């Protein structure tokens, strides 16, 4: 009888494979020079906003539990980022494991300026983070989200497929710039470590602020950023899959299921490496 039963498929690998399939479908349908489709796994903590809330099922499991973003999970939130100690430990672990050529010596600084809606501007900042040059504008929407709670690991993680559509900000006139009202800004200092042809690990320190009173308005192609107190600090760790490269690999091999499954296994292996206690 056992010989007739299909082989065991790990549910976490299955979740990642399903998300990759979804990402590839969206990539094939909508990816252009102005539309970017992203697949990422972000480390964080999944917890309740109210300690006395009783979830329909136990969340103090000792094995990973996949949680969706349905209404039943609304009182719970995914808090992005890891502790500073965990972040520095991960940084050292990645430096020791990855080839030296894959680990950049310096981080890149980028300022993201968000509106209350889906629009955001991206500025490349100088070394002192005092001046920025406009890189692009975009609108971002999440198309697929699953949270995975891992009590025995050092962090939980969120699987997300999103789509970014570029905005022609280079052609904006003064009246359009005046309509752009910043709500939240995030100053990100990041190192990207390439892990193979498809995977990249991003380690970033992010400072967020909502007070834009000291920034000259309207915004424009250049930006002067005075010394601003950023009350919100997070240490973000993300794993990204290059969907364009994965799509090429699927077309080359013509083996969609096995290629995606092996990629999902590599993603989970890397997540476990990053979150092992």
UniProtKB/TrEMBL annotation:
Residues 32-207 form the mRNA triphosphatase Cet1-like domain. Keywords: Hydrolase, mRNA processing. It catalyses: a 5'-end triphospho-ribonucleoside in mRNA + H2O = a 5'-end diphospho-ribonucleoside in mRNA + phosphate + H(+). It comes from the Eukaryota. Transmembrane segments: none annotated. Its EC number is 3.6.1.74. One of its GO terms (molecular function) is mRNA 5'-triphosphate monophosphatase activity. One of its GO terms (biological process) is mRNA processing. InterPro entries: CYTH-like_dom_sf, mRNA_triPase_Cet1, mRNA_triPase_Cet1_sf. The keyword Hydrolase applies. It holds the Pfam family mRNA_triPase. This is mRNA 5'-phosphatase. It comes from Trypanosoma brucei gambiense (strain MHOM/CI/86/DAL972).
């Amino acid at each position: 009888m056992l010989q007739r039963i299909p082989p065991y498929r790990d549910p976490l690998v299955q979740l990642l494979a399903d998300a990759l399939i979804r990402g590839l479908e969206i990539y094939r349908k909508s990816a252009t020079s102005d539309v970017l489709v992203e697949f990422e796994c972000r480390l964080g903590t999944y917890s309740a906003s109210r300690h006395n809330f009783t979830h329909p099922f136990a969340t103090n499991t000792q094995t990973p539990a996949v949680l969706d973003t349905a209404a039943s999970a609304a009182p719970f939130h995914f808090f992005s980022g890891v502790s500073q100690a965990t972040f520095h430990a991960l940084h050292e672990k990645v430096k020791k494991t990855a080839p030296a050529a894959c680990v950049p010596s310096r981080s890149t600084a980028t300022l993201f300026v968000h509106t209350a809606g889906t629009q955001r501007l991206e500025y490349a900042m100088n070394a002192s983070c005092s001046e920025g040059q406009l890189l692009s504008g975009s609108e971002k929407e999440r198309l697929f989200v699953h949270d995975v709670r891992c009590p025995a690991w050092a962090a939980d993680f969120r699987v997300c497929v999103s789509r970014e559509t570029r905005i022609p900000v280079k052609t904006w006139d003064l009246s359009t710039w005046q309509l752009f009202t910043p709500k939240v800004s995030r100053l990100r200092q990041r190192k990207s470590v390439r892990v193979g042809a498809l995977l990249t690990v991003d380690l970033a320190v992010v400072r967020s602020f909502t007070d834009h009173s000291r920034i000259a308005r309207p915004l424009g192609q250049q930006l002067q950023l005075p010394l601003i107190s950023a009350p919100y600090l997070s240490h973000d760790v993300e794993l990204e899959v290059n969907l364009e490269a994965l799509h090429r690999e699927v077309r080359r091999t013509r083996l969609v299921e096995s290629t995606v499954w092996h990629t999902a296994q590599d993603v989970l292996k890397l997540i476990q490496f990053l979150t092992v206690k």
